[in-house]
Design brief:
Blueprint lengths: L1 H24 L8 H47 L4 H8 L8 H17 L4 H13 L4 H16 L19 H6 L10
Organism: Salix koriyanagi
Protein name: SPX DOMAIN-CONTAINING PROTEIN 3
InterPro entries: SPX_dom, SPX_prot
Length: 189
């Protein structure tokens, strides 16, 4: 709960920073300066992308933990013949560490903020994709890719399926994600 409050505060701070830069350095601002405006907006965009990555990692961490717990309980029930999994999983689904609705909402708001405040032209998109491959070894970006690859692997079809199973993870840009590990000395598999 405390971490969610921090995320809400950081999200609001980012929105306020954007507005302050627009009001001060933007074309209609009190002290217009194109160079300073672009530099500040670049910094804000980087902060938003890093913030977004942290939240995506938190969501994936929650999903991985749930999947691991479900597999442990399934194996326990199989070996003991018990029925511990169903009541235990139902209680877990109500716990704060599993409920990621607010984080998911903030992730979508960050994506919306990036799309609306920082519109990207087609040429810039291709340039950013090439640059993202180059910086794949950096912190949160690399960890996010590793988390997505792990989630994809975990969510593959299972030999057993129940209503507690997570759906398969379909990544639309999977080739781009895989290609971003080109410069990594340790492959993400």
């Amino acid at each position: 709960m405390e971490q969610e409050e921090d995320y809400i505060i950081r999200h609001e701070e980012l929105k306020q920073r954007i507005q302050k830069v627009i009001d001060t350095l933007g074309p209609s601002g009190s002290q217009p300066s194109e160079a300073a405006y672009k530099e500040e907006m670049r910094k804000i965009r980087k902060n938003i992308v890093n913030f977004h990555g942290e939240m995506v990692l938190l969501e994936n961490y929650s999903n991985i933990n749930y999947t691991g717990l479900a597999k442990i309980l399934k194996k326990f029930d199989k070996r003991t013949g018990g029925l511990l999994r169903l009541p235990f999983i139902q209680k877990v689904l109500e716990q704060p560490f599993f409920i990621t609705d607010l984080v998911s909402k903030l992730v979508k708001q960050c994506e919306y903020m990036i799309d609306t405040v920082f519109p990207v032209e087609e040429e810039e998109i291709m340039k950013e994709r090439r640059e993202s491959i180059t910086v794949a070894g950096e912190g949160i970006f690399r960890n996010t890719i590793a988390a997505l690859m792990t989630m994809r692997e975990i969510r593959r079809g299972s030999s057993t399926h129940s209503h507690f199973s997570l759906p398969p993870l379909n990544l639309p840009d999977f080739d781009l994600i895989q290609s971003s590990q080109l410069n990594s000395p340790i492959p993400i598999v």
